[in-house]
Design brief:
The structure holds two protein chains of two kinds. Chain A is mostly beta strands. In chain A, about 0% of the residues lie in helices and about 55% in strands. By secondary structure, chain B is mainly beta. The chains are: A mainly beta, B mainly beta.
Chain lengths: ~120, ~110
């Protein structure tokens, strides 16, 4: 149980375009979903926390107009990287917190974004 | 000082050895402790989860928490090459869903 999927697993896009990444909890309802960014050989950097039906809470230094997060249901959150630039190239990982659980997070497999 | 300190390694041990991975933390409000395993280019996988001092065992893995010393450990018995990965400790406070992560320890099990 507690499976989280992400789509796509890998995406290459041109500079200036937008990219949407989906995060789904497959077998449970997630009250809260999280979006992380990870650079090579570094730990996870939390970008934002999203709760179903409300606006996401962004971490300091993360541009909310660039990284649009929508949490439309208890099983789906999306991250849209708008007007992508090469410096946005990274590994993006989502996680979901189990409703009624004890705060443990279950992670998706990640999406590797390359902006050319 | 970081809230959570974790030796980044890399750590290399021979197959079959016992591995000890450790984290220390400074915030005494942390109550929930997790260990994640992350293979290269994959998302982290929850291995162990505990919220009390003492030991919790699951197969070859044992999580140990010492709240008085603000120290947590993950022990891997009979280590296998498939255990080669980065191991991240994580923790949070009561009522807070946000996790604070260690930097991760890269582990290699040598056949």
């Amino acid at each position: 149980g507690a499976v989280v999927s992400q789509h796509p697993s890998r995406v290459i896009c041109k500079s200036g375009t937008s990219v949407k990444i989906e995060c789904r909890s497959l077998d449970f309802q997630a009250t809260t979903m999280f979006w992380y960014r990870q650079f090579p050989k570094q730990s996870l950097m939390l970008m934002a926390t999203s709760n179903e039906g409300s606006k996401a809470t962004y971490e300091q230094g993360v541009e909310k107009d660039k990284f649009l997060i929508n949490h439309a249901s208890l099983t789906l959150s999306t991250l849209t990287v708008t007007s992508a630039h090469p410096e946005d190239s990274s590994f993006y990982i989502c996680s979901a917190s189990l409703a009624g659980g004890l705060y443990e997070q279950y992670f998706g497999p990640g999406t590797r974004l390359t902006v050319t | 000082q970081k809230e959570v300190e974790q030796d980044p390694g890399p750590l290399s041990v021979p197959e079959g050895a016992i591995v000890s991975l450790n984290c220390t933390y400074s915030n005494s409000a942390f109550q929930y402790f997790m260990w994640y395993r992350q293979y290269s280019r994959k998302g982290p996988e929850l291995l162990m989860y505990t919220y009390s001092s003492g030991n919790k065992e699951d197969g070859r893995f044992t999580a140990q928490v010492d709240k008085s010393s603000k120290y947590i450990s993950l022990f891997i018995r009979d280590s296998q090459p498939s255990d080669s990965a980065t191991y991240l400790c994580a923790m949070n406070t009561f009522g807070n869903e946000k996790l604070t992560f260690g930097t991760g320890t890269r582990l290699t099990i040598i056949p």
